[in-house]
């Protein structure tokens, strides 16, 4: 959230005005020599690519006006051993921001026979994306063959980043000669933290003219991707950030305590009469009042604003002005937070601002204060124990993007001492919602046609929570023909070759999420579920629950699993057995796979059946109330997942009595 960084702390002001006496030294990024390339020899490995060198350097320098620059050097030497690797390295993009300058760019191809082919400068291209209008600079390699080595180097003069940077040292391919260096003027002090087995960052104690930190690894093993694993968070990596500027006397720069005070002031203070008047008018238009409960008022305001205001991630001061937001119907991410927070304050609703990050990209470390964890902003209502995300129209109170749950967050709690109002910062856990908050339930009643060559199915389906989130909040914005296509897809979960006779829907408005489940009732006709085998009929009852995920793996799993969210399925299937017929192999419908911890079931797939007259009643209760699946539970989790897939394969035999 870019606006967050601007509002949080104007750290740049801590740096401007101090010119290092070392600025006249020849910068490292200019004197670095990438060598002749003749000593790089192909290695015999099974992987599609192999990195011979991965060198990165960040060199901070002041210019003559005292402005801090960040010079980023990258030198990579990568062997390509198959067609996929060659395809991925036909173009190598140079990550240039809008105001960045490319200072050096060199590339060459080292052939398997040792012949070195320099890349002509004419093969460095810049193109513009027609849709986003973003420009891209890239090396374009030609004539690469299996076993070739691409060797490239570039240096960028870019905007300095010192509020927290995540550096990944590991990939899905093996590497050697991996290093990362940070060079800074002697007045700038950085701090570091390593993760996932990466050694601590070292400080160069010999060169005292500059501050120089580094990590160097002779080899880094590959970490191969596996389904459902939080891959990015498991890689060897480290975070670095500026902690002090000794020239200006600023220390503990990334303090959460200071951040809380500054951000609170930016959100709540200096609200003028016009903004307060506009807020009162807004509350009346949204239907919020003192006669309603806090939850009713939050939902009323949220449903109103999320259909009226467009949120854009651009730092324009006007889009943080409440009067302009309500007039122009546009807000920045900071502006919409300010609007909601002050409206709720006017309604006397207790609220806290909370910051967190995407747990599939980065785990919030409660023991290391860094702005890098403060990527997304939420509002938390302690009296309700519920969250909302102001900037995303696809969510409502009680539901935020699942990647921001099951992670720590920084909470800013309002405190008052006399006439002084400010905020204190505290790190707390953001719980994932329980399994029964997200569901995809259905009741099916099956009747065979008279000639036993097809079935008619009466369906009642209820979907809620994260299962409904991809579409229910947007239904008011969707065209009627697109709605029909969506509803048909939801009905056809049992099979593609079915005929939908009719259907009705309920709770198909954005304001229904997540208060009411999306409901669809339908009648369908299908031939694919029954086959004749001599005098018997084979009824593919298992297919009625739709395709299921399977986890039948031959190789040993190396990485843990992390679920997106807890969820559940309740299914009831009533089969009307035709007169004169009986059903064999009913015992296959009894499946029981569970995992309990501390006396509480956390995951299960349980299916049972009973006969009532000519009605076969099947009930299935499947749920997952655990996000983290460590390696020691993988086999248990696999059995539960596969139990659903096993039910999917159940075929009942009907024969005459």
What does this structure look like?
It is a single chain. The chain has 657 residues and is an alpha+beta fold. It folds into three domains: 229 residues, Immunoglobulin-like (Sandwich); 175 residues, C8orf32 fold; 222 residues, Jelly Rolls, CATH 2.60.120. It is built from eleven helices and 36 strands. The strands form eight sheets. Strands 5-4-8-2-1-10-13-12 form an eight-stranded mixed beta sheet. An eight-stranded mixed beta sheet has the order 25-26-24-23-30-34-33-32, with helices on one face. The protein has a five-stranded antiparallel beta sheet with strand order 20-19-18-21-22, with helices on one face. Helix 6 packs across helix 7 and helix 6 packs across helix 9. The N and C termini lie far apart (69 Å). The N terminus is likely disordered.
